[in-house]
Amino acid sequence: MGLFIVLSILPFFPFFLVYWGMYVWKKDKPTALRMAMDVTTFFLVFSVSALFNLTFDSNFGFYLTLILILIALGFIGGAQNRLKGKFNGGRMFRAVWRMAFIIMSFGYVLFTLFGLFRYFMKQM
To answer: Which residue among 38, 40, 45, 83 sits deepest, i.e. has the most Cβ atoms within 10 Å of its Cβ?
Structure first.
């Protein structure tokens, strides 16, 4: 449990560890990058949820994250169904999961900077 907490607090560590490990193993940068993104997204979900809860004094961060991921799955699935007449669950989940990586990375940086700003303002 302690390792999970550390990796969730500092989600760039699992990114670099997985990227380096996959690159050493497969010798393929795009595959290593995709795998690192997929693994890191899992930790970012918990990290950004916790930062949201701290920033807004809430307990809803994790549920909000899950709701947004489910809504994105619905939109992507609906778009696939309209365009192709069927949907591919694996591609749909992969697209949303990688979009979540980008959005959660931005959220992590934003909430971290906001939290630091709030902390320093309280100290003055």
So the answer is: 40
